[in-house]
Write a structure and sequence with these properties.
Blueprint (H helix, E strand, L loop, with lengths): L23 E4 L2 E4 H8 L4 H51 L19 H9 L26 H4 L8 E4 L38 E5 L6 E2 L7 E4 L5 H4 L4 E4 L9 E4 L6 E5 L4 E4 L7 E3 L5 E3 L8
Parallel strand pairs: 3-5
Antiparallel strand pairs: 1-2, 3-4, 4-9, 6-7, 7-8, 9-10, 11-12
Length: about 300
């Protein structure tokens, strides 16, 4: 056909035909392709990024305290489990020793002495259950007082863990220490006593969370127990709220109970059950005849 060029197979395409001009748009005097313009429009602006970051920060500030409370709740549950196992160990001990609870300490008031936790250790077969997880410093220091170490390992250190047995009015020989309380009544705690004498086992304190070098807790009889708020007892119990006996000064050895769990504490009772408590239940008093008030939950008698 005239005006056309044919090769061996067919018409030869014209490869040199110019492609249609790419359309451009002009913005602010800058010429850019439509594709680049569309890509820029799909990104986040600085304001949008800042808004997202602010929302994340607000959510974090709300959720982190919730997570912290959940962790402390788990530690409190582990502490309750510790006390429950200690209670089982005490009950097994009584079956082998004529239904009598162990003494708080037998021979000496420091680490060289034989203490109640040493007496029941063969039954619980664990040294870790004597330390509340909320009070363990995890320092790795062999002299850490929050730890319990068996008698042969602790030397003179008072490494009794963080729990104390109720030793109200008793000395290391299990004898009543005067003054019992005003009026001279012989109300006592459960240490070294026969379980047959427990009039209110489910309401009487067997063991509590106490200061880290005491190993025992008690109501002295002549001194009422008082609640000390967090921050006021920094010299006595590592800034924790506590039950304290004595005059002013917050002497460390006068700390009877500490509250590391939501300003409360865990308590093991004489019937073997353990529960979380606020301090009010540990401070209940009752008039006994003409005598001064007694701390009813610290004595085994029917007050």
């Amino acid at each position: 056909m005239a005006g056309q060029e044919f090769g061996a197979i067919g018409p030869v395409p014209n490869f040199f035909t110019k492609a249609p001009a790419r359309r451009v748009q002009e913005t602010g005097g800058i010429v850019m392709s439509k594709a680049v313009s569309q890509a820029k429009r799909t990104g986040f602006t600085l304001i949008e990024l800042l808004v997202v970051i602010a929302i994340i920060a607000i959510l974090a500030s709300i959720l982190f305290p919730v997570f912290g409370r959940a962790r402390e709740q788990a530690r409190r549950s582990a502490c309750l489990s510790n006390l429950k196992q200690i209670g089982l160990g005490l009950m097994q001990y009584t079956q082998d020793y004529d239904e009598r609870m162990p003494f708080a300490n037998y021979d000496g008031n420091n680490g060289l002495g034989f203490w109640w936790m040493d007496a029941i250790e063969p039954y619980v077969k664990s040294t870790q259950i004597y330390t509340c997880p909320s009070r363990n410093t995890f320092s790795g220091n062999p002299n850490d007082y929050t730890l319990y170490r068996p008698r042969a390992q602790r030397g003179t250190l008072n490494q009794f863990g963080t729990y104390g047995i109720n030793n109200t009015h008793l000395n290391s020989a299990g004898l009543l220490e005067p003054p019992y309380f005003a009026g001279g009544s012989n109300h006592t705690g459960p240490a070294a006593r026969s379980i047959a004498a427990f009039a209110r086992a489910a309401e009487t304190v067997m063991a509590v969370e106490t200061n880290i070098t005491l190993g025992k807790a008690q109501w002295n009889g002549n001194t009422p127990l008082n609640y000390v708020r967090e921050g006021q007892a920094s010299g006595a119990s590592v800034n924790l709220p506590c039950v304290w006996a004595g005059g002013s000064g917050y002497i460390f050895s006068n700390v009877r109970v500490v509250g590391p769990h939501f300003s409360g504490t865990n308590v093991l009772y004489c019937d073997g059950h353990a529960k979380a408590q606020n301090f009010d239940n540990l401070l209940v008093t009752k008039q006994y005849g003409s005598a001064a008030n007694i701390q009813v939950n610290w004595t085994i008698e029917d007050d």
